[in-house]
Write a structure and sequence with these properties.
about 350 residues; mainly beta; 4 domains; seven-stranded mixed beta sheet; five-stranded mixed beta sheet; 3 helices; about 40% strand
């Protein structure tokens, strides 16, 4: 039976004194006796039985262990991860601890990212270990952060590119070293080499396995050389004295065409050449009769261009006519009119010069 209505211990005088044969630090998983025979509680409306006894059960105290996986950089074939343990929950003064506080865990996937770690948990040790039960968190869901590794790279000492090319076309000298496979390129690879000079540019090394390795940057000496012209030369016109020949250059850019020198020659039967003029066109004269005509087109030495080795070896920068210049077959009046037009052109040139 108990209190009725709104009555409670608060309506009683005296004290309830409960005693037990359990003492601090006694063993766990054990039943202990409790009794209240020395209680002084009183209330005129109730009779208290103070000679009753009971029992209490003392269960083990929970000792909580928290594992932490240490982040590390990616390593080929390394599935090991260091796991550290900390514990809490021991009563002050109790001799209780962990069988180890650090161990090697493993991951099934050792690539960069957040990976699940499998590990063996420690056990409790110490004189009071039996009074505790261990609770290890993150069993089955402990994760480790595997970060990208930085490869060891020695950049090429230099790279070469031609004037007018993008730096993405640069050829790196084959004297680099790296701890992993990858490729070198210039960060500003889309820009164009617009000056023949040597300078340093920032380059990068991109690992083939970019998912597990960082990109590394460094500086490389860039040697911008003259653009190589692999031109083909011919000329148009008829081989009659008084006619005008015009050199035709193909296989080069408009800028390159503005930076070439035209050289015209007479060639005798022995192949000896005599310089006769420059410019893109050449007007044949009676002095050319009996000679073959040759034109050479070469880059201006002061320009950003030079002949390619292929053009020099194949001789495509020059062309020589297969037959000699002959006198044009004209009637008397055709010759007279031709002579007259020349006089008029000379007079016109004099007037133009005086303006």
């Amino acid at each position: 039976m108990g209190f009725t209505g709104s009555d409670s211990v608060a309506n009683c005088a005296g004290q309830i004194i409960i005693k037990t044969n359990y003492t601090k630090g006694s063993g766990v998983d054990t039943t202990y006796t409790v009794y209240a025979s020395e209680s002084t509680i009183a209330n005129p409306n109730y009779i208290f039985k103070k000679d009753q006894t009971g029992t209490i059960y003392v269960s083990p105290k929970t000792y909580t262990v928290t594992p932490v996986a240490e982040s590390r950089a990616y390593e080929v074939g390394n599935n090991n991860v260091t796991v550290e343990f900390t514990g809490e929950g021991a009563i002050e003064g109790d001799s209780v601890g962990l069988s180890f506080t650090s161990t090697q865990g493993t991951v099934s996937n050792n690539n960069v990212g957040s990976q699940v770690v499998t590990f063996t948990a420690p056990t409790l040790t110490g004189a009071k270990a039996g009074n505790y039960t261990i609770s290890v968190s993150h069993i089955g869901n402990l994760r480790v952060s595997i970060t990208k590794a930085t490869p060891v790279v020695s950049f090429p000492t230099e790279a070469t590119v031609e004037y007018g090319q993008k730096y993405s076309a640069a050829i790196f000298k084959n004297d680099s070293t790296s701890s992993v496979n990858g490729t070198f390129s210039f960060i500003d690879g889309s820009s164009v080499a617009n000056e023949v000079k040597d300078s340093y540019m920032q380059a990068r090394f991109v690992p083939s396995d970019s998912g597990n390795y960082e990109t590394v940057t460094g500086y490389v000496l860039v040697r911008v050389g003259k653009a190589q012209l692999n031109m083909s030369v011919s000329f148009s016109g008829t081989l009659y004295s008084g006619q005008t020949l015009q050199a035709i250059v193909s296989g080069v850019s408009a800028d390159a065409l503005d930076n070439v020198i035209y050289s015209w020659y007479r060639v005798n039967d022995e192949g000896v050449k005599t310089y006769v003029g420059d410019g893109r066109t050449y007007e044949l004269t009676d002095d050319d009769i009996g000679y073959r005509i040759c034109v050479e087109v070469t880059p201006d030495p002061s320009s950003n261009y030079e002949l390619s080795q292929e053009a020099e070896e194949n001789g495509t920068f020059t062309v020589t006519s297969l037959r000699a210049v002959v006198e044009e077959s004209l009637t008397f009046w055709q010759k007279f009119m031709k002579w007259w037009y020349k006089i008029l052109a000379a007079i016109q040139a004099i007037f133009d010069a005086r303006r």
